[in-house]
Each structure stands twice: as C-alpha cells, then as structure tokens.
C-alpha cells in the first residue's frame, strides 16, 4: 500500500481551471439558457396564435383552415390543439419541403377526392374537385359496364364446361381511366378515427410531448457544446507547457 500511495501522490492532478476558462464556460451556459428560453417563448406564442385561429374557425362557416408549411414540432402543436378542440387535423406534402397541416370540422370531413388530390400535391379548388368527380364517375361507369359484360358472358356459358378466361386484361387497357394499383390503393376510402382524426394517437411514431421534444433537442446541443469545450481545453493544456518551455 505504501508503494501505491507513493505512486498516486507522485502523479499530477487535473489541471486547474483559470479565470479565463471559467468565463468562457459561463458565457456558453448563458447562451444555451437564452436559446432555450427563446424557443420556449416562441412555442408559447405559436400555441396562442393557433388557439385564437381555431377559436375563430369554430364560430364561422368555413369547412377547413390551412396552415403554411412548417416543421414537425409546430405541426404537432396544431394537431394537439385540433384534437383538444374536437377537430380533424391532417398533414400533406413532403417533409422539409412543403409539409403542412389542414384542420377540418368533424361534421365536414374531407372527401376521398380531396384527400387524393392533396396527397398528389394538387391542392383543393372547385376546378380540381370537378376534375376528380368526373374521373370517378367515368371509373364507376366503366366498372359497371365491364361487370355487366362479364355477367352476360358467364350466363351464356353456364352450360359449358371448363373455365372462362377473358380475352384481354381490361385493367391494363383502361389504366388511363381507372388508374394503376397504387392509384387505386391511394383512392381507398378513409374512415374517421374518433380518437384523433385520421391518425390514431397509438400509431404516432413520436409519442413525446412538445416540452420533451424541445428538451431532447437542447440536451443534444448542450452535449455537443460541452464536447467542443473539452476538446478546446485539451488543446490548451498541450499548448501551455510548450509556451512555458520557450
């Protein structure tokens, strides 16, 4: 134990932090705190703005209101307030490009055509609604006509043995009208989920609250600043002995 104690006593202790380094650390902490407070205040202002806008929306005769493109944190605020207010909130567009939220009244949910148009990036106007309505009518009429022809062919061949095979694939022939499988899947009817509009809360990928999301972001920034500061201190410790030797 005496030998171990002598070795430990002979080792150099950690370098002392001088006044200049203490000032740098203090400034960094103050900067992080100011950034956190600024973001909290900004989110509070945005939440107040959304509350007021949805309050006016609930009293007028509009069917929906549309927000400008924004990041995921601000969109989550819109969805949270919409859920608490009894509205339906949906997001359309590509992330980091034009992803935006649209809020509907529950008594006026979006139609299949509107959802398809917005997912295709076409927006929703009277002209777009008319175009999608005509396409849907043509598709329904075509499917009914083909079903009638198939029924007549089946009745005519009822006494014949063997399996009836169509002469051509009508889906490929009329793809420009009825769409491909991906388009048909996108046009599938969407049913309202009473718990959270068209997106159940249990299916959300990120279950964190706004405060927790903000805290996680700030923790990452703080860790990055701390690592950078430790690296700067290490470089300073290397340069100081070299300067003293000169």
UniProtKB/TrEMBL annotation:
Instruction: Tell me the InterPro entries matching this sequence.
Output: R3H_dom, R3H_dom_sf, R3H_sperm-antigen, SPAG7
Q: Which Pfam families match?
A: R3H
Q: Which domain of life is it from?
A: Eukaryota
Q: Which Gene3D superfamilies match?
A: R3H-like domain (3.30.1370.50)
| PROSITE patterns, sorted | R3H (PS51061)
Location of the R3H domain: 33-107
**Annotated protein name in UniProt:** CG2608
The beginning of the lineage is: Eukaryota, Metazoa, Ecdysozoa, Arthropoda, Hexapoda
